[in-house]
Amino acid sequence: MPAARAGGFAKRTSMSIVTITGIRPDFIRMSAVFERLDAEFEHVMIHTGQHYDDELSKIFFSELDIRQPDYTLEAGTRSRTPYEQLSYLSTAVIELLHAEKMDPELILFLGDSHSALASVPLFKEGYRIGHIEGGMRSYDRRMPEETNRVCCDYCSDLVFVYTPLYKERLIAENKDPDHIFVVGNTIVEVVKKYRPRGPRARNYILADIHRNENLRDARQYGHMLDYLDGLGMAMGMEVRLVRFNRAVKLIEEHDLLAGRDQVRLVGPYGFLDYLDLQYQARAIVSDSGTSQEECPLLGVPVAVPRDFTERPESVEFGNSILIGENKPVNEMIDTSIRFFDGYTISDEQLAWLGDGNTSQAIVDVLTREL
């Protein structure tokens, strides 16, 4: 079994909880949950290895003071494509549980990465599953994340949702309401703890474009870059575009930054540096769902170049705006600037994210239900 053991774990109670995580947002969002689980349960942390280099994995453990995983698998190094990762994790996780004679009361996932699809074979083997961040739906079938989150929700005995809307969605899908728990958003306590303070530069636009819908070919990504370049010119400031491997490959193969002088590649960054980069920005353009939560908590406006979102409350309460993927560039620019110029944020607009006590709420549910 290709798994690395990183020392023992302290047994807190007779109940055993296994967490399975694999990517940067999982580490960040689960950081406070890990701490509470360690304090209250016999907690075994499995890292799937989906993100496995220093920038995308190790640095987040160090910055957020997350203990080392008990076991580390090799999803990122042994498999590259989604189907290879699913094939690998389908056997590797179960073989690890059998080899180490683990019989947990619950196996807990967060989010919608490929690692969350390990819930399917575990469900078929009779393990009880829990899912944090359940009930999110963009209803955009192009998104691999949509498939992942729907499958994990279906397999879960306990679903932890961020808002009442997500619970309503799951009930509409015939999920038992007694198994759905509104706990608030895990990101709130993390951002509150590490939020930068003090003056802001506000002299650049930060951009993060990495979703399949916007990277499907050079033409679509070029459209995004035309928008970013035009936005930078209209606002009189540089656009700092965060590096992603697939995006850089498109840029280099097709010379996509030629003539787009307002756009400069930067990063990648660790969590704390990126949080400060968001805090200092005049505005943000991002197709990441996380940006629709983090940026409002930092008081920074965000334009989302997508046609759909699984976080409609962010738009409804003025935290963010959808500007579309293929609308005319000038229309996208004008819509963005109007939103940026009129942006305000208040506690009432942030209420949908919860009160910042999500990790304890999750532990309370586990203690009661298991």
Radius of gyration: 20 Å
Give the rounded overall mean pLDDT. 93
* Percentage of residues in helical conformation: 40-55%
Could you tell me how far the N terminus lies from the C terminus, measured between alpha carbons in angstroms? 29 Å
In the sheet with the most strands, the strands line up as 1-4-3-2-5-6-7-8
> In this structure, how is the largest beta sheet organized?
8 strands, mixed
Morphology: globular
CATH superfamily heading of the largest domain: Glycogen Phosphorylase B
| Structural class determined from secondary elements | alpha/beta
CATH top-level class of the largest domain: Alpha Beta
Fraction of residues in β-strands: 15-25%
**In total, how many domains does the architecture comprise?**
2
Give a structural overview.
The protein has 370 residues and is of the alpha/beta class. Strand 10, helix 11 (245-254) and strand 11 (263-266) form a beta-alpha-beta unit. It has two domains: 4-185 and 354-369, 3-Layer(aba) Sandwich (Rossmann fold), CATH 3.40.50; 194-352, Rossmann fold (3-Layer(aba) Sandwich), CATH 3.40.50.2000. The longest helix is centred in the N-terminal third of the chain and has 18 residues, at 82-99. The chain has helices at residues 24-40, 54-63, 75-78, 82-99, 119-124, 144-155, 164-172, 187-194, 212-215, 218-235, 245-254, 271-280, 291-298, 312-316, 329-341, 347-350, 358-369, and strands at 4-5, 16-21, 42-47, 71-72, 106-110, 129-134, 158-161, 180-182, 204-208, 238-242, 263-266, 283-286, 302-304, 320-322. The strands form two sheets. The chain has an eight-stranded mixed sheet with strand order 1-4-3-2-5-6-7-8, sandwiched between helices. Strands 11-10-9-12-13-14 form a six-stranded parallel sheet, with helices on both faces. Helix 8 (187-194) runs parallel beside helix 13.
